[in-house]
Amino acid sequence: MLSVNSNFPEYAVPGAKQVRFEPYADNGGSVVAIAGEDYAVIGADTRLSTGFSIYTREQKKLFKLSERTVLGATGCWCDTLTLTRLLQARMQMYEHEHNKAMTTPAVAQMLSTMLYYKPFFPYYVSNILAGLDADGKGCIYSYDPIGHCERSTYRAGGSAGAQLQPLLDNQIGLKNMQNVSEAPVPKEKALALLKDVFISAAERDIYTGDCIYIIIITANGIQEEKFELRKD
């Protein structure tokens, strides 16, 4: 007796095969930024990883764009490198044309435009921009992947952003607290709080750890600090 396949060979073709296109990779990392009356502090961990593999424990994720502006970027590392390279090139073009550096709000608007330029194939990067505005006050700008920009005084992003933001909301935004009054956050308290939230993140997020690279932006310039985290 002949089989069905021999009588009807057209039915013997293999079924539909699903082909997946996955151009993005998530290399982890977290960023936290806090702004005060005359300063801005931004920190990011130095672990670059994917899945359960660590590529390096010493990768800085903060990019100094000018003496008053710093970008923290985590996510897909190849997209991060491409975006920051283009951003720095655009800032150099502006400086050569206008004979002055871009202000932090101007950089924030330009970054928003650059992200929105790729709405259907966006940069897979979590961006937080920190710096001083024209009045010398600290400012923080956060973004979604296609360029929506929001100014605030504190922000967390990256792989542990959802864990860190509620802690900042409570300690700086004074959410869910009673009988407290708003007051400017001193620089020393902002630094201590930034280190505390990263210690908390390193205990819970395998993509955050090893070390924090911190940049402090004031009218006198930029200072850098390093703070060790757990290595496992």
Describe this structure in words.
This protein has 232 residues and is α+β, with helices and mostly antiparallel strands. The chain has one domain (27-50, 63-229): Glutamine Phosphoribosylpyrophosphate, subunit 1, domain 1. It is built from five helices and twelve strands. The strands form three sheets. Strands 10-1-2-11-12 form a five-stranded antiparallel β-sheet. A five-stranded antiparallel β-sheet has the order 5-6-7-8-9. The protein has a two-stranded antiparallel sheet with strand order 3-4. The mean pLDDT is 91. It is found in: Nucleus.
Give keywords.
single chain; 232 residues; alpha+beta; Glutamine Phosphoribosylpyrophosphate, subunit 1, domain 1; five-stranded antiparallel beta sheet; 30% strand; globular; proteasome
Count of discrete structural domains? 1
Identify the strand order in the major beta sheet: 10-1-2-11-12
- Uncertain regions: pLDDT < 50 for 5+ in a row? none
Q: Sum up the overall morphology in one term.
A: globular
SSE order: HEEEEEEHHEEEEHHEE
**Biggest beta sheet attributes:** 5 strands, antiparallel
Break the fold down into its secondary structure elements and pairings.
Blueprint: H1 4-7, E1 30-35, E2 39-45, E3 48-50, E4 53-56, E5 62-64, E6 69-75, H2 77-98, H3 104-116, E7 125-132, E8 138-143, E9 149-152, E10 154-158, H4 161-171, H5 187-204, E11 211-218, E12 221-228
Antiparallel strand pairs: 1-2, 1-10, 2-11, 3-4, 5-6, 6-7, 7-8, 8-9, 11-12
Helix pairs in contact: 4-5
